[in-house]
Design goal:
Chain lengths: ~180, ~180
């Protein structure tokens, strides 16, 4: 087995090979038992390595550091910590929230909302019809009363009479004017 | 001051286990790892204004690595401590495992312990790259900047480390593990 192929097998086993190599090695391992064995051995080791967690830092170290740096001994989870936590530790959360908001805006723009149709009973319709008629009758009464008032009171007293008076004055003035001309 | 404290607390929460873990792999000694971790955490506080939050990870790992190298250099002058082997064993027992069967649990713990042991036996340059990449999950670029080595060297060291670990594990007698 050449070195290049061996390196590719190792990369595939540790999971950081390109997809092209992964497919190639997979098919090669089906044909070649040596490749298969090497791949399986490395895969087992990689799984073992990746299962190793980080060692827990003893809390007494943190306490010692805090006393040396004169920081508060207790761990305060302040507002600032929360902000930093959101911004740096959980960028995925921020991205998720942002995507959700964007998605909601887009969907509200593009997705057709169903027309709201409310079903009414016949009785409700009849009541509504009656009320509408009553309202229209009421309005009609007001209009007719207004018309009568305008015709009988406003037009006769406030408009016709002053106009008649003014015409009479004009006529009398014209008559007086005519008589003066004749006498001259 | 409160913002500085918040930044510091955030960085400590994020990196304390990474720093401690890296020191443990590099120094193979709990007392020295404790000292290095403490020193790194103090230096973070002292230099908090000198680095950006975005580049904090690289700065912290670089500082940790350099301190580990200092300790290794110092240690090469004195005798290796006996405590080392006991610690690896003790450490394996302190690991959490959800498996209840005592024989399987013991097997897993022993295997994990063996893998850890093999990693700790790697040459220092291969070990640092391997731990940062495989255990700490850092990227090639981050490792290159943290360890001050070219990107290609990171890739080469990683490949060598993987091969060496495989070789070492092959040499371990299965009965030793079981």
């Amino acid at each position: 087995m050449n070195e290049e192929l061996a390196n590719k097998i190792i990369a595939v086993a540790y999971g950081d090979a390109p997809v092209k190599d992964k497919i190639r090695i997979y098919f090669l391992s089906l044909k070649d038992s040596e490749v298969k064995k090497m791949l399986n051995d490395y895969k087992a080791t990689a799984a073992e390595v990746h299962s190793l967690g980080l060692d827990e830092c003893p809390p007494e170290i943190i306490e010692r550091v805090k006393s040396k740096t004169k920081l508060p001994q207790h761990e305060e989870k302040s507002f600032f910590y929360d902000i930093y936590f959101l911004v740096f530790k959980r960028p995925a959360l921020s991205v998720g929230v942002m995507s959700l908001i964007v998605l909601m805006i887009i969907s509200s723009l593009f997705i057709e909302r169903p027309e709201i149709r409310e079903a009414y009973t016949k009785r409700e319709l009849a009541v509504a019809d009656k009320q509408a008629r009553e309202a229209l009758m009421f309005v009609s009464n007001i209009f007719s009363k207004t018309e009568t008032t305008v015709k009988e009171d406003v037009l006769r007293d406030k408009v016709s009479e002053p106009i008649n008076k003014s015409f009479k004055i004009v006529n009398s003035l014209l008559n007086v004017g005519g008589q003066n001309e004749k006498s001259n | 001051m409160k913002i500085k404290e918040a930044r510091y607390n955030f960085l400590v929460q994020q990196h304390k286990n990474r720093v401690y873990s890296y020191s443990m792999y590099m120094l193979r000694n709990r007392m020295d790892a404790d000292d290095v971790t403490q020193e790194v955490l103090i230096r973070i506080w002292q230099n908090l204004d000198k680095f950006k939050m975005s580049s904090a990870s690289a700065w912290i790992m670089k500082t940790t690595h350099n301190l580990c190298l200092d300790y290794l250099r110092k240690r090469s002058r004195v005798l290796k401590r006996d405590v080392e082997i006991d610690e690896i064993f003790e450490e394996s027992y302190s690991d959490d495992s959800k498996v209840n069967d005592p024989s399987i649990k013991t097997h897993i713990m022993m295997m994990t312990s063996k893998v850890k042991e093999v990693i700790k036996k790697l040459p220092e340059n291969l070990r640092s790259v391997f731990v940062l990449y495989e255990i700490q999950g850092m990227k090639y670029k981050e490792i290159s900047s943290a360890l001050d080595i070219p990107l290609n060297s990171v890739k080469v060291y990683l490949l060598r480390a993987r091969k060496k670990i495989q070789e070492e594990l092959k040499n371990i007698d299965p009965r030793e593990v079981l």
